């Protein structure tokens, strides 16, 4: 599986090549490398307690970021829990998962020591 940054790097190469073909005198390899360095640099994560509020429910703890694992897990479980299936023939509404299935999902999350995504 190829990452998005791979395609972006290739696109930058193509853009610089085309600009050189069209006679742009500023399209040097040095400029291209500096450009890539700027584009693909990430600032380090900084936690500033004074910028993060306290949790509504657990007031001795800070709120979690929207994209942290626990928030994503919570959103996923809520979406699963709120998904209903409607039988087109009878109109009967059924839950996608039973309460026991949700418990099994929670057990799965608790057992996982490390989750990763292939790039």
| Cα shape | elongated
Question: Strand order of the main beta sheet, please?
Answer: 1-2
**In angstroms, what is the radius of gyration?**
24 Å
Specify the biggest β-sheet: 2 strands, antiparallel
- The chain-level mean pLDDT equals 81
The helix/strand class is mainly alpha
Order of helices and strands: HHHEEH
Low-confidence stretches: none
Total beta-strand segments: 2
Query: How many structural units, i.e. domains?
Result: 2
End-to-end Cα distance? 6 Å
Strand content: 5-15%
Number of helices: 4
Query: Helical proportion?
Result: 40-55%
How would you portray this structure in words?
This protein is mainly alpha-helical. The chain has 2 domains: 4-39; 64-111, no CATH class. It has helices at 4-21, 29-39, 69-81, 99-111, and strands at 84-86, 93-95. Strands 1-2 form a two-stranded antiparallel sheet. α3 (69-81) packs antiparallel against α4. The radius of gyration is 24 Å and the shape is elongated.
